[in-house]
Amino acid sequence: MQPHPPRAVGRQALGTSCLLALPTALALTGPAAAQTIITSDITGTVNLAAYGAGPVSIASGVSISGTGLAAISGTALAQLANAGQVADAGGTGISLGGGGTFSNTGSVSGANGVKFGAAGSIANAGAISAANYGVLVQNGAGQVGNTGSIAAGYDGVSLDRGGGVTNSGTIFGAHIGVYTGNALGSVSNSGTISARTGDAVSLYSGGGLTNMAGAALLGGYSGVYAGGNGARISNAGLITGPLFGAYLMGASTISNSGTMAGGTDGIMDFGRGGVVGNTGLVHGGQVGIRLAANGAVENAGIINGGTAGIKLGINSTLANDASGHIAGGTMGVVATAGDVLTNAGSIGGQSGIIANGAVTLVNTGTISAQAGGDAISLSGGASSITLGSGSEIDGDIAGNGTASQISLTGSGTLAANLTGFAAGSTVNVSQGAVWTGQGQWQVAQLVNSGVFTPGVIGAALSLTGNFVQGPTGTLRVLVTPSGISSFAITGTAVLGGTLNYTLAPGTFAPGSATFLTASGGITGNFAQTTTTQAGLTAPPLHLGQGGVLSLGGGFVVAPAGVALFADTTQAMAVSAEAGGQALLDHAGSPAATPGDCAAARPGPGQAANMGANMAVALASGICAAGGWMQVTGDTASASGAYTLEGGGVLAGIDRADGLGGRIGLAMGYDTLNLREKAAGTAGLRTIRLGLYAAQPMGRFELSGAVMDSIATRDTTRITGAAAATASGHANLVSGVVQLARPLSLDGAVFTPAFGLQIASITAGRLSEASATRAFAVNVAAASGTTIAPYIGMTIARTFVTASELSITPSLSLGGAVALSNPGASARLSAQDGTMFIAHAQHMAPFSGQLGAGIAISRDHWSITARYTGAAGGNWLGQSLQAGVQARF
Q1: Phi/psi at 570 (nearest 5 deg)?
Q2: Which of 202, 233, 636, 727 has CA atoms 20 to 30 A from the CA of 703?
Q3: SS3 label, residue 301
């Protein structure tokens, strides 16, 4: 790669000469004025000296036509404004040898458009066009502000001694769009700057560039060129060139949240120490980002290239964040000696990462290769690789004769083949780490100080090398009714620590199976043998000669953590009851004005999906039509079983029924996150539709509500081996009916009430997926119904302020008894067909309720806030609601 073409230290306007004194016949005489306005057309050169030191303006509609030197010239510091037309086809439109200020709302044209011989500023809101330079400032810093158009046959704007350009219009140069010369330059662009053969922006001696969202730099060579060190480029728009998006000559910095693209490289640093931060898109026809030595890339966006995503020089760093994606047609990342790579996102290509020298790699993301390539290829020195939780290696790791080291931390599965590692190479399972290994591993030594599972059912781990397990290590063997994980070693095995048998659910018969072989011999022994099946110890499980597991009798192993399935149905049933009670509370209440309802959104932690968006949008629409809306946050816990957290939005609209009562319709969406203690997690997302009504009956009030809900549940269960996940649906129907008798006493209203709640759930089947399939289960459809009578007392009193606000605090107490346990038991089967039943946590049937709230209302609207708590002997639930309603 050749460096950027060298530029001249100083530049002269093409085809120009020094201005001559005006001929006598063209000289303008008369007393100098503080401010002069030229209001009539002039042919020939206008000498500003004739107007004195004051400002000069060219009025709109006036034409100044030069004859080959300059249409307007001045040698002293000048103040000039043009609203007319200034042109000199053979010379310079405006030439100010002493610099100054020039503002243009008209048009200027010439061989050169505007030329300053000293420092000055140009503000253009009109049109400047030239055969050579649109704007040229020499012998001093220039400042150009452009909201109009500047177009030139060579450079659009040339500031030979640096300065600044602010552009919201268009600037074009057939050679360079904006050039900031032999001093620091500053360019801020919210418009378009373009060039045909050179750079859209050339910070020749460094400086700063800000390219805003919606703006564009369209180069003929590169979008932006930055010489020297210390340049800072910030892009939120588009920067592109047929060769390079950005071309850096040294230790400069790029921050990109927009798009940067080049036909060769998206970003190229020819010098040392370049830094790139990307949250947008960087693309190169060959390489996305190419850095020389001591460079740095931090990526949270997308970087891709036709050949490579990123090429790093020596001693450089790459940090690819969780949202970062790096891809190359041949290579994702090419690294060299001394580079440090951290990946939490994705890196991929025909080969994922190629290291040409000893590098350090820490990975918690995905590194992938296509068929025929390596996920990681190491050469030229012993590299250090750390794979942590979240690591996915899709493809081989090639040692290529190096003594590289691989450390496994956290937890995960390494199913890649390890090829070509030389003497001195090691795979270390760190203390506290939990890993599974699969495939063919050609590495000098595998050392286990954590928990290591060699192989899975039907896919052994083959180690060409030696195995050592230290005193903190645990060798975990997966055992199913039909098979066992196995570990084949061509070298020696030195044993210590713990041997653990992890049993899959199902029915086991007597028998034996080999789980460990070592061609070079086995020395040492395990200090202890454990199993996940309570009460089952050696014998019948014991280590035989060569690593043989013997089962001396038949037994059944139950799956771990399956109470999760029944407890999710219980959580859905309880939430259905709460939803029905929320509707009932609105049935008898005497709902914000349309504008108060427009900001409804899913609550914290709610998934952004089509169902949620539709439900929330409809809820907002209902409220805007003159109804009510409430946002709720909920927590609950069942002692020793699980905890719940979530929230949602519920809205309704109701009208008088003509008989003294009201009838209404409501819709809502909510989420719950369940954490089962030591068993797993579940996410519940529910869309609800309900009807509610209230009707006076003499001194009593009868009210009721019914709600139908569709729920999605996603479960992640801890199995003892790899986690198992499942997703399914459920239908919830809840109803509540209540009879209340309001009583007034000393300005307060006492309302005793008796009611009955019913909640029914029908949960669809679940089929778990797991990397260790034998530990997954299938869950059958289930249903259950809960009936709970309750009593309660609410006390409320309304206070009216001088501004006619009604403030109503309230307090409620009550109790309920559940006639059956909420939720449904789960029937499930192991992979061998053995059936099991999991029951939901038994909730104490008797519970007490406490509620407190406040409503602030005026005319047809009110704002409410309420706390509700319920507690049984072994469970507790709490809810906070905030709402707005408008009544018509």
Answers
A1: -65, -45
A2: 636
A3: coil
